[in-house]
Amino acid sequence: MSETNPAAAEVAAPHRYTAAVAAEIEARWQDFWDADGTYAAPNPKGDLAGDPGLAAKPKKYIMDMFPYPSGAGLHVGHPLGYIATDVFARFQRMTGHNVLHTLGFDAFGLPAEQHAVQTGEHPRVTTEAAINNMKSQLRRLGLGHDKRRSFATIDPEYYKWTQWIFVQIFNSWYDDEAEKARPISELVARFESGERAVPGGRSWDALSAAERADVLGEYRLAYASDAPVNWCPGLGTVLANEEVTADGRSERGNFPVFKAKLRQWNMRITAYADRLLDDLNELDWPEAIKLQQRNWIGRSEGARVDFPVDGEAITVFTTRQDTLFGATYMVLAPEHPLVEKFTPAAWPEGTRDVWTGGHATPAEAVAAYRAQAASKSDVERQAEAKDKTGVFTGAFATNPVNGEQIPVFIADYVLMGYGTGAIMAVPAHDTRDFAFARAFELPIRCVVEPSDDRGTDASTWDDAFVSYDAKIVNSHGEDVSLDGLGVTDAKARITEWLQRKGIGEGTVNFRLRDWLFSRQRYWGEPFPIVYDEDGIAHSLPESMLPLELPEVEDYSPRTFDPDDADTSPETPLSRNQDWVDVTLDLGDGRGPRPYRRETNTMPNWAGSCWYELRYLDPHNSEKLVDPEIEQYWMGPRAGQPHGGVDLYVGGAEHAVLHLLYARFWSKVLYDLGHISSPEPFHKLYNQGMIQAFVYRDSRGFPVPAAEIEERDGAFFHNGEQVKRELGKMGKSLKNAVTPEAICEEYGADTLRLYEMAMGPLDVSRPWDTRAVVGQYRLLQRLWRNVVDEATGEVTVVDTEPDETTLRALHKAIDGVRQDLEGLRFNTAIAKVTELNNHLTKAGAAVPRPVAESLVLLIAPLAPHIAEELWRKLGHTDSVVHQDFPVADPRYVVDETVTCVVQVKGKVKARLEVSPAISDDELEKVALADEKVVAALDGAGIRKVIVRAPKLVNIVPA
């Protein structure tokens, strides 16, 4: 039959599997699945209670990371993870599991808002259009989602519960003694009774309402504070650290980002730092992701030390308290709140010119340097640059171990986001401090004995000496000496001395900072917070949720000159005065009162912090989730002590953002008794990326990949030679391939097979449209093994397969089962292909048991053609819930294996023996072999070494 003449082939084989046949089959079965509710996952209440068989099934909860519905739609790289989880979910159904697999949409986001700013079109309109387009694209792939459970974060009935969770967090505090979150009302009760002392020493009754609110704000897990933030005037909004590039610009729009102080909502995720670290040990996650979270949390043990300054103190956190005698100056972050307080009106007598930066007064020097530092990102500030910058504040601090007066500088290499925003500088034993000290002509004192021959006169060194395994020297005072001690012992001694003196204590510090939770945007969840006449924040009662977004005339936050750091946000919501200023009865016994609404919105991370819970019980209007349903799908069980989703698939780029935030919310909800699972995701799997070739012209601009001509290994666009490189796939790179294009040419099952066959799921791989045809031909051969292309009749025969075919079948069953369970879809496809090729080469009609098993094997991977062939084989029920084949162990092992027989270490015979042969039997067979007898030539035997079934070694006497 001609492969090169499609028209002739269609006439000769009118029932051939073609793209048109695939399209018809796929559309028909997708309609059937929707109408039949094939993928509806029953919940324990009602569904399981009335069906003992269903109740006995083990459950499996499988999830993809929330997709954002882009207006550009999907390219073939996007569905990789969705197809993989679909294959795994289908396999789990066929192995007897009650499977929950669905997909929603993380739909708040800056792209839709930017479109609204540019066009005036409501972001909901464009977002819902993008969702509908994405649903259509995903449906065409045949994904087996329980569509009853789908939702978008922009649905008010969804974000009602996002707001409700915020209220729970706002009304909670972290009890360090109980090591869990507790209702804030319990803390108030302790203050009222005197069980817990009120900070500042006054009684609770003596505090005004505003003072009480300030006290509670220091404990609440959600709190507002004046904090250093990343202010982006060009976007008119504050950004999280993760939304700022390494060169200090916004990810969106590439605008400059500055450090500023603004009143913002924060989440006290730092209270959970230890638990977030410890519980990683029980999660089945890639070690690389665990390491990223551990590094991001950044736990370090050390000491807090107070350095007196003018009757007050600068507190530092250090992990090298053993080097205190070597501290010769201090450095504050430019944003440190004490900088202005300690800055005198004039330079102290004897101030060196190199310390002043050329400024007439300390205030002038500090202001200029702060402006300079505000234009740099944290990454830039911590870069190991040769030139260290800074300026003297005009203040001196007292080193508490020796009474020495040491100058206090500000420098951009110290950040407010780590420790206390202040360091004691020990230049002899820290590379950055050493460079700074050299630049500013500061003393460098050795207090850790070098292991090389440089000696202890640090003024002669070329660089710092850093060691954690050396003796302490030059470290003694009136009542404490560390000389001669090792680092560990010196740390213990000085820490005890600091605590005894009341000027420090041993402590643990974390790199993790509290989560900045405010955005100056329109398109986000409104905060369920109102402020009374005294500026006190109150949470809305549940009866007032959801608080929906109001209509506004202008969706954009007020933007400014991108380079003007001296500006502050004006949010879109603040312009709707009728919505902002309201009279409410909050049910607190005070009656109706005037309030002002919070006009910031939540960040786009909020909705994805808990969506795994909403999938469980998506239409519950009374509770976040029914406890029995949550316990069934996510509760702790054997092997999963913290509960969570059984398999969560998504990109590694979310390691320290979404994954950390979701873990924090789960722990708070768990502590407050709302859920039984303190961890959201038990098993995490990071899929790789589908890459594509990018073609660039002489200017470096991408040109359409579809228009490239290849000649003699070179690439041309409109006659001009272009360069080819491997990169991401995307619209901007002009190399995107849509799923629709592949489906139209080959069918969705072919696309599914190709994406799964490209390589291991967790490895990135290049897309090659020309290679897709290989999987298309596999499906055509499968079709021909069941259906006559000329007549459309089923050709299978009701006979038993021969032993060779049985062995091929059961080896395939055994291998595919193991591969699908291990997410090794590429090798599973290879085994299905091998079996299919065996049947094709046999040239005879395929026995029915083999054909049915083959269809079941491929069903998770190519569900449409499997449904069609299953129906053609005479079955009236869906293939989706059929039992996956089980291998007969008799046919899985090889019929024979080759045993090598050596005499004097040389191979003399090769025997075909049973894999189950015993050592004694194998020895007898080997000694009886005529080639072995000839090799021995009558010699006696000193020793026979047998390693059944593959080796016999004979040592003659």
Could you walk me through the main structural features you see in this protein, from its secondary elements to its overall organization?
This protein has 32 helices and 31 strands. With about 950 residues, the chain is an alpha+beta fold. Among the domains are: about 165-295 and about 515-585, no CATH class; about 300-510, Isoleucyl-tRNA Synthetase, domain 2 (Alpha-Beta Complex); about 785-895, Isoleucyl-tRNA Synthetase, Domain 1, CATH 1.10.730; about 895-955, Roll (Ubiquitin-like (UB roll)). The strands form eight sheets. Strands 22, 23, 24, 25, 26 and 27 form a six-stranded mixed beta sheet that branches. It has a four-stranded parallel beta sheet with strand order 2-1-20-21, with helices on both faces. A hairpin with a 2-residue loop joins strand 24 and strand 25 (about 715). The longest helix is centred in the C-terminal third of the chain and has 19 residues, at about 805-820. The radius of gyration is 35 Å and the shape is globular. The two termini are about 65 Å apart. About 40% of the residues are buried. One of its GO terms (cellular component) is cytosol. GO terms for molecular function: aminoacyl-tRNA deacylase activity; ATP binding; leucine-tRNA ligase activity. Its EC number is 6.1.1.4. This is Leucine--tRNA ligase.
Key features of this structure:
957 residues, alpha+beta, four-stranded parallel beta sheet, globular, six-stranded mixed beta sheet, Isoleucyl-tRNA Synthetase, domain 2, Isoleucyl-tRNA Synthetase, Domain 1
Concise synopsis of the structure shown:
With 957 residues, this protein is an alpha+beta fold. 33% of the residues lie in helices and 17% in strands.
